[in-house]
C-alpha cells in the first residue's frame, strides 16, 4: 500500500493518540479516586439541625443507650427517631425559658415529629434494614463511628455501594458474637479468638435453614436494590 501520510505526520498522529490515551487514563483514575474519597460522600460534614442536639452530652456524658431514642433499631428497617416527648421527659422544666427548645414546643403543638436533617440518607433505589444488621452482630460503631463522642452528628463512613459490598463479600470477621454485643461500647475482640462462623446466627441463615431454601448470597443485586 502506498504511503498516504508522510512519516512525520504518522509520528505526530501516534504521539497524539498516546497522549490522548494517557489523558483518558489519568482522568479515569482521578474520577475513581474522587468517587472513593470520603469528601464526595459528605463524610465528616454535619447537617444544619433545628436544635443543637449533642450525642456527646446525651449518649456520652449522660450515658443514655442508643435504643432510648432510636427504639426500633433492633427490629425494623428504620432505626426510629425520638419524639418531642422523649426529650421533654428531661427538658420539660427548662424549655419555656430557652429559645433553643422552641422546635420541640412546635412539634408537640402540631402533633408532628421534629424535622431533623438526615446525614445518612441512601438513594430511593437502595434497600437497608437496621434490625437484620443488629441481630447479626454488626455494631452501630462499625457503620456510624463513635457517635457518643460527636457534639454534632456526622457520617463516619461513605455508605457507597463498594463500602457495603466490602462487608457483604465476607461479613464474618466484622461480626460480634451477639446482638447485645453490638451495643457494647467497650467490646473488644478476644485476641486469637476465631471469627463468628460464616452466617451463624444471622437471620438469613435461621430463616432459610428450616425451609430448605438456599440462602441468597449477600452480594446479589436484589438484596439491596428494589
Ligand atoms: C437522647 C436521645 C438520643 C440518644 C440516646 C441517641 N441519639 Fe442518635 N440522634 C438523636 C437525635 C435527636 C438525632 C437527630 C439530630 C442529629 O443528627 O444530631 C440523632 C441522630 C442520629 C444519627 C444520624 C441519623 C441520620 O438521619 O442521619 C445516628 C447515626 C445516630 N443518631 C446514632 C446514635 C447512636 C449510635 C446512639 C448510641 C450511641 C445514639 N444515636 C443515641 C437522639 C439520640
Ligand atoms: C435523660 C435526660 C435527657 C434527655 C432524654 C434529653 N436530654 Fe438534653 N440534656 C440533658 C442534660 C442533663 C443536659 C445538660 C448537659 C450539660 O449542660 O452539661 C442536656 C442538654 C441539652 C442541650 C444543650 C446542649 C448544649 O450544648 O448546651 C440541648 C439543646 C438538648 N439537651 C436537647 C435535647 C433534645 C433535642 C433531646 C431529645 C432528642 C434531649 N435533649 C433529651 C438531659 C436530657
Ligand atoms: C450496616 C451498617 C449500619 C449499622 C450497623 C447501623 N446503621 Fe444506622 N444507618 C445506616 C444507613 C445505611 C442509614 C441510612 C438508611 C437509609 O437511608 O435508608 C442509617 C440511618 C440511621 C439513622 C437515621 C434514621 C433511619 O433509620 O434512617 C439512625 C438514627 C441510625 N442509623 C442509628 C443507628 C444505631 C443506633 C445503630 C446501632 C444499633 C445503627 N444505626 C447501626 C447504616 C447502619
Ligand atoms: C459490617 C458488615 C456490613 C456492612 C458494612 C453492611 N452490611 Fe448489610 N448485612 C450484613 C450482614 C451480616 C447481613 C446478614 C443479616 C442476616 O443474615 O439476616 C446483612 C444483610 C443485609 C440486607 C438483608 C436484610 C434482610 O434480611 O432482608 C440488606 C438489604 C443489607 N444488608 C443492605 C446493606 C446496605 C445497603 C449496606 C450499605 C449501606 C450494608 N448492608 C452494609 C453486614 C453488613
Ligand atoms: C450490599 C448492598 C448492595 C448490593 C448487593 C448491590 N448494591 Fe448497588 N448500590 C448500593 C448502594 C448503597 C448504592 C447507592 C450508593 C452508590 O451509588 O454507591 C448503590 C447504587 C447502585 C447504582 C447507582 C450508581 C449511581 O451512580 O447512582 C447502580 C447502577 C447499582 N447500585 C447497581 C448494582 C448492581 C448491578 C448490583 C449487583 C451486581 C448491585 N448494585 C448490588 C448497594 C448495593
TrEMBL record:
CDD domains: Cytochrom_C3 (cd08168). SUPFAM superfamilies: Multiheme cytochromes. Signal peptide: none annotated. PANTHER family: CYTOCHROME C7-LIKE DOMAIN-CONTAINING PROTEIN, LIPOPROTEIN CYTOCHROME C. This is Cytochrome c3 family protein.
Amino acid at each position: 500500500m502506498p504511503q498516504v501520510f508522510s512519516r512525520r505526520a504518522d509520528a505526530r498522529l501516534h504521539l497524539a493518540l498516546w497522549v490522548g490515551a494517557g489523558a483518558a487514563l489519568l482522568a479515569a483514575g482521578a474520577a475513581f479516586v474522587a468517587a472513593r474519597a470520603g469528601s464526595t460522600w459528605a463524610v465528616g460534614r454535619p447537617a444544619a439541625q433545628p436544635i443543637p442536639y449533642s450525642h456527646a452530652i446525651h449518649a456520652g456524658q449522660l450515658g443514655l443507650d442508643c435504643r432510648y431514642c432510636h427504639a426500633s433499631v433492633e427490629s425494623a428497617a428504620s432505626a426510629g427517631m425520638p419524639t418531642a416527648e422523649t426529650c421533654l421527659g428531661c427538658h420539660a422544666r427548662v424549655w419555656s425559658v430557652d429559645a433553643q427548645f422552641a422546635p420541640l414546643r412546635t412539634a408537640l403543638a402540631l402533633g408532628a415529629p421534629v424535622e431533623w436533617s438526615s446525614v445518612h440518607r441512601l438513594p430511593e433505589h437502595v434497600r437497608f434494614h437496621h434490625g437484620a444488621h443488629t441481630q447479626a452482630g454488626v455494631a452501630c460503631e462499625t457503620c456510624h463511628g463513635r457517635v457518643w463522642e460527636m457534639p454534632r452528628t456526622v457520617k463516619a463512613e461513605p455508605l457507597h455501594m463498594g463500602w457495603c459490598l466490602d462487608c457483604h463479600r465476607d461479613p464474618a470477621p466484622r461480626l460480634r458474637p451477639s446482638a447485645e454485643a453490638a451495643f457494647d461500647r467497650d467490646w473488644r475482640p478476644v485476641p486469637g479468638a476465631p471469627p463468628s462462623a460464616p452466617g451463624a446466627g444471622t437471620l438469613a441463615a435461621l430463616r432459610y435453614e428450616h425451609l430448605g431454601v438456599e440462602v441468597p448470597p449477600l452480594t446479589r443485586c436484589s438484596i439491596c436494590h428494589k
